[in-house]
């Protein structure tokens, strides 16, 4: 338990963290990797370069300070991050290292404002928060290791099939190299894939959603090739998978993880909304619903630029034809002439509130969505405009968590 003095000290830093949080976390990662370069094997370097990891950590530190007198309030966030940590291989022994450099970063950035009392309070608070992470993650490691077909760390898988799903997305069907059983997983969960790329000093780990339902003889991931853009480098792992990993290759996977999962106990309708490669966890949920819950109405809405980059369309359309409880809609931002001639989509442009209301027969439903952040922000706004309760809204970020709230203009 934290002392009342420490709680008040931590709370006094909330306004400072709101202003300087990202500067502190940038300095933290500089110190961490400068002194422990081996930890670069656990982190997504692209997220570091783009500042996404620093922002996510700053938001977590800020939330911890804000709720320091009611730490159970941040347990859902701890569990969400814990899933990622378990899938990456973060262990209890890493936490003292992180704590050391986080305190050093606070001192470096805040200078004289980081008094001895404030640093002592943060050291005390970090110990309590780290213990919560360690305890939750220990349970996750144990559950993963002991479940039927489970394993610890990374396990060798062979690429049994590689299927081109669109101009930019390919699916990889992965089977255990040891011939052993496969752990079950919840629709919406992901696996981490660890790659040793020729010429790269460090290994690279990425999370990819499982894009089929559980209970098969394989795991399937469907990966978008992330080419270089104006504000981002090409994705090292995604391009390597597309260009160099073929049928028969061996890759290394951690056991399934993640808390963005389908509520299978709720009997109400389900609405699945996806943009781009965000359809991968939705396909897993869709397949599970079609296989196990034929009485549960499902509305599947997918937004893509056009038919050339729309993955798994034939599979979803075929599924809907044989399952009358499924309603399927496609929205194309920039349809091709072929798309128009084939009447391959239901709406041109973006998903908007008016159209969404028409597409959803019964708004009393569970809503799941995933895709690029602007897409998710638009869907989130629309659902709130429809007065959908927060408890019925579920979403997943690919990569570090961000905010779906609009940025204030000062």
Automatic annotation (TrEMBL):
* GO MF term list: FAD binding; heme binding; metal ion binding; nitric oxide dioxygenase NAD(P)H activity; oxygen binding; oxygen carrier activity
Q: What protein is this chain from?
A: Flavohemoprotein
Q: What is its EC number?
A: 1.14.12.17
Report the top EC class in one word. oxidoreductase
User: Any domain commentary?
Assistant: Consists of two distinct domains; an N-terminal heme-containing oxygen-binding domain and a C-terminal reductase domain with binding sites for FAD and NAD(P)H.
Return the Pfam families for the record: FAD_binding_6 (PF00970), Globin (PF00042), NAD_binding_1 (PF00175)
Function as written in the Swiss-Prot or TrEMBL entry: Is involved in NO detoxification in an aerobic process, termed nitric oxide dioxygenase (NOD) reaction that utilizes O(2) and NAD(P)H to convert NO to nitrate, which protects the bacterium from various noxious nitrogen compounds. Therefore, plays a central role in the inducible response to nitrosative stress.
The cross-references to PROSITE patterns, in alphabetical order and at most eight, read:
FAD_FR (PS51384), GLOBIN (PS01033)
Q: Where is the FAD-binding FR-type domain?
A: 152-263
Q: How is the cofactor bound?
A: Binds 1 FAD per subunit.
List site positions: Influences the redox potential of the prosthetic heme and FAD groups: 84, 396
Tell me the Gene3D superfamilies matching this sequence.
Globins, Nucleotide-binding domain of ferredoxin-NADP reductase (FNR) module, Translation factors
The catalytic activity, as recorded, is: 2 nitric oxide + NADH + 2 O2 = 2 nitrate + NAD(+) + H(+); 2 nitric oxide + NADPH + 2 O2 = 2 nitrate + NADP(+) + H(+)
Please name the gene that encodes this protein. hmp
Provide this UniProt record's keywords sorted from A to Z: Detoxification, Dioxygenase, FAD, Flavoprotein, Heme, Iron, Metal-binding, NAD, NADP, Oxidoreductase, Oxygen transport, Transport
